[in-house]
Write a structure and sequence with these properties.
The complex is a heterodimer of chains A (about 300) and B (about 525). Chain A is mainly α and about 300 residues long. In chain A, about 75% of the residues lie in helices and about 0% in strands. The radius of gyration of chain A is 20 Å and the shape is globular. Chain B is built from 18 helices and 21 strands. The chains are: A mainly alpha (about 300), B alpha/beta (about 525).
Chain lengths: ~300, ~525
């Protein structure tokens, strides 16, 4: 479905605005959206378990700032990547502990951590940008190679997770827990552990996303990642993830993300006013939810069985 | 002669290519309890939906009080006095009984003033009429299932319903609760209402019905009268038929009855439970033994702690006192994973919610609890999974389009077999079956019974929990009765249903074995 819409959009662009596909701008666009793809992946895993994580935007900023500070002690790309990932993992573990172990509702927990992380950053950083050491940009590679590294990393991670979802028992566990936590528990699958793992993975992917973003810029804005959680949820919904849990294929996030990031340039190339951008995003999300809603009741209109 | 309350002539209804009703004739007279019998897929649910106006029939006539109704809608049906009491009461759990009754009976205009005193008076009088022992100020979430059904009946009476449909009202009721319900039904009958009574339990039909119609494959196969004169109090005699005939009409084939097998005398003790208790679930001082190849039945009133005991043995609510021994070795069971690893399986009560996962395929459901065995390296091997599933599809006779079909495309009985297959795949030493045939049609039920018998012949130890005495008596080698969280009696051999009932109520007589 999403792939079809994307294909039509790209076909239209190829005919009316072939400039869209000129290699260098396209690569830049893909590079800058690679982190979003990973965050969407993380949120999608959490949504599979019937939960939500809206703290990813704040966590993304925390991971970025932490990595930025660490880079002044050891200015190597490896340190930046490692610190960002570990920070994300820690943040995810905190959410996971609160949701899975203490059984608090995820929307409330992650709302609280979202606000907390953001306010901590505001107090600690006072809005001051952090400059990154020169040699860490693009992982100390040339720009084009750096861009390819970012894009390919995101694609490899997505492909691996999509494969794991289908082919590892752990993927089955996510679906079982999301479909019915009690039934999963009675089958010997621990809903708590599974949910915890999903949150930790989500945090880790957010940290990795922050690392891929840091490689692209010479300095860090402590306000980075605002509304990232909304973009990620939107991508997951467009990709067909059911908010009620248990349904959705991670690989569908690729066309969904590509669709979402193609809209602004498409509007520009087609000469529409940029104000339309968000409105079109909204329409696409609504269309995705509606399509899902229309598909579902069909299952229920089978003849009843006593 | 007064016209019948309700008359259905030649009702047909199809969903796409599937014919649900293919010419049903049915009649309900004032002051009669008319039982509607039929296996799964016989068309009972669809017929109810036609009567309540939820499904317009494709052909045929619906007449209420002698007048044909051309376009029956749910609103028209309600205004004609048709009410349906579903198996699962649809009340608002966070409101009180009075508020629920008020919401159901009063005008739904949003700006009307609520007259609290009048509402309380009405609710109180309706609750008295149905013999409810709770006040209208009780929150519905505090009521048991049968109490909620009483509220539903009160609403129906309050709405002036003359045609009452009761869909398996006793499915989750215990014997005394059933008696209470039968009393209410008797009252309604005396007041001239007509009751369409749907049940899988044949003994109830003889207990309460005046007439019985059997549906099979969307057709009304037979309608017969029952007579009360000359029979024992509280029962009726079928005119020219008995239970076996009803089953025969329902399934169109005879079900054989296998006699209970006696477990081998020297069989080792498989599961020994001594002084087991769990404060949180209100279960205490449970002591019993199940030998290999033995079925121990467990009965008692709803709320007696049977399911709670099963949940302790399966590690869902771990025990805090007592001892469990498996094949002589003391074990602690603190999670379902541990229980499964020890070889304990638990088929839970609520099949559709907990027994299987409807979104997953048959094969995925079957392999659910043996992932670490059939996927030793953590990645899925679809072939191994399919082989496993097909083995059990064949062994248990599961009717499905294939091992890859979604579990929600299966009928209730076949879903239950899938849930059983999952546990058999774990090669359990002890299998706990909690209401294994609840809501399953007669044919599937007898098949499941045969599978259970075969499993114990192969040396499995089974703890069988059931509210249906007939099932407990037919399958168990020994029978335990629970009351208020403890085991009050353990019968060897074949006790009578009356003995079991007495134990469940706590009225043991001399001659009944104490525990």
């Amino acid at each position: 479905m999403v792939s079809a819409v994307l294909a039509i959009l790209w076909l239209g662009l190829a005919v009316f605005a072939p400039d869209f596909f000129s290699p260098q701008p396209l690569l830049s666009r893909l590079t800058s959206s690679a982190p979003k793809l990973l965050v969407a992946c993380g949120i999608a895993l959490v949504i599979l378990t019937r939960n939500i994580d809206i703290s990813v935007g704040s966590l993304y900023a925390v991971a970025s700032v932490a990595a930025g500070h660490a880079s002044h002690f050891a200015p190597t790309p490896a340190v930046i990547v490692a610190v960002a990932i570990l920070t994300g993992l820690g943040g995810g573990a905190i959410n996971g502990f609160l949701v899975a172990t203490l059984r608090l509702p995820s929307i409330v927990v992650t709302l609280a951590t979202m606000v907390t992380w953001r306010e901590c950053l505001r107090l600690g950083q006072q809005g001051v940008f952090i400059n990154l050491p020169d040699n860490t940009q693009w992982f100390s590679l040339s720009m084009v190679r750096g861009q390819w590294t970012v894009v390919l990393t995101a694609l490899v991670v997505l492909t691996f997770l999509a494969w794991a979802q289908r082919n590892l028992a752990a993927g089955r566990h996510l679906h079982a827990v999301g479909s019915d936590p009690e039934a999963a528990r009675l089958a010997g699958i621990s809903p708590g552990r599974t949910t915890f793992a999903a949150f930790v993975l989500c945090g880790t992917l957010t940290g990795l996303a922050a690392a891929l973003n840091l490689a692209q810029s010479p300095q860090i804005d402590p306000n980075t990642g605002r509304l990232l959680e909304l973009e990620a949820v939107a991508a997951a919904v467009v990709a067909g993830f059911a908010v009620s849990g248990g349904r959705g294929r991670l690989f569908a996030l690729l066309p969904a993300t590509l669709l979402m990031i193609s809209i602004s340039p498409a509007l520009t190339y087609l000469g529409a006013k940029p104000y339309w951008d968000k409105a079109v995003h909204g329409v696409i999300i609504l269309a995705a939810v509606t399509a899902d809603g229309l598909r579902r009741p069909k299952q229920q209109s089978r003849p009843p069985v006593t | 002669m007064t016209p019948p309350l309700l008359q259905l002539i030649g009702i047909k209804k199809a969903f796409g290519a599937v014919t649900a009703l293919n010419g049903v004739n049915f009649e309900l007279r004032p002051g009669e309890v008319h039982a509607l019998l039929g296996g799964n897929g016989a068309g009972k649910s669809t017929l109810i939906k036609v009567i309540t106006g939820a499904h317009p029939p494709d052909a045929g006539t619906v007449a209420v009080g002698g007048y044909p109704i051309s376009r029956l809608t749910p609103a028209i049906a309600r205004s004609l006095g048709i009410a349906c009491i579903y198996q699962q009461p649809a009340l608002f759990p966070d409101l009180t009984v009075t508020e629920n009754i008020g919401l159901r009976l009063e005008s739904t205009s949003p700006f009307r003033r609520v007259r609290h005193r009048e509402r309380r008076r009405l609710a109180g009088s309706l609750l008295r009429q149905v013999g409810a022992g709770f006040s209208g100020e009780t929150g519905v979430h505090d009521l048991s299932m049968p109490q909620q059904q009483l509220v539903e009946i009160a609403c129906a009476i309050g709405a002036g319903a003359k045609i009452l449909i009761m869909d398996e009202p006793t499915a989750s009721l215990t014997q005394p609760e059933q008696e209470l319900l039968f009393g209410v039904v008797d009252n309604l009958r005396r007041n001239g209402s007509g009751i369409i009574y749907i049940s899988h339990r044949l003994e109830e039909i003889f207990r309460i019905a005046d007439r019985v119609t059997v549906l099979r494959d969307g057709e009304s196969v037979v309608t017969r009268d029952l007579t009360r004169t000359g029979s024992a109090e509280g029962t009726a005699i079928g005119q020219g038929f008995d239970e076996a005939d009803l089953i025969h009409w329902m399934v169109g084939r005879n079900l054989e009855r296998t006699p209970v097998a006696i477990p081998p005398a020297g069989a080792p003790d498989r599961l020994i439970v001594h002084g087991l208790g769990c404060e949180d679930s209100g279960v205490h001082n449970i002591t019993f033994t199940i030998r290999a190849g033995e079925i121990v039945g467990l009965t008692g009133l709803v709320g007696a702690g049977r399911t709670e005991l099963a949940r302790i043995l399966f590690g869902l609510t771990p025990a805090d006192t007592g001892e469990i021994r498996l094949d002589g070795i003391p074990v602690t069971i603190s999670s379902p994973e541990e229980a499964i690893a020890l070889g304990i399986g638990y088929l839970p009560e609520d099949r559709r919610r907990h027994g299987i996962i409807l979104d997953l395929s048959v094969a995925q459901n079957v392999s659910m609890s043996v992932h670490s065995r059939i996927f030793p390296r953590g990645w899925l091997r679809p072939n191994a999974e399919q082989t496993l599933a097909e083995h059990y599809i064949h062994r248990l006779g599961i009717k499905t389009a294939g091992s890859g079909a979604d579990a929600n495309t299966l009928s209730g009985g076949n879903q239950q077999k899938v849930a059983m297959a999952r546990w058999l795949a774990t090669n359990p030493r002890v299998l706990i079956l909690d209401e294994p045939t609840q809501g399953v049609d007669v044919g599937a039920k007898s098949e499941i019974h045969q599978h259970i018998r075969r499993l114990v012949d192969e040396g499995l130890a089974v703890l069988l929990i059931s509210s249906e005495l007939a099932e407990i008596l037919a399958l168990s080698h020994r029978i335990g009765v629970m009351r208020s969280g403890t085991l009050t009696a353990l019968f060897d051999g074949q006790p009578s249903a009356a003995q079991l009932m007495r134990a469940a109520l706590g009225n043991l007589e001399p001659g009944d074995p104490p525990c």
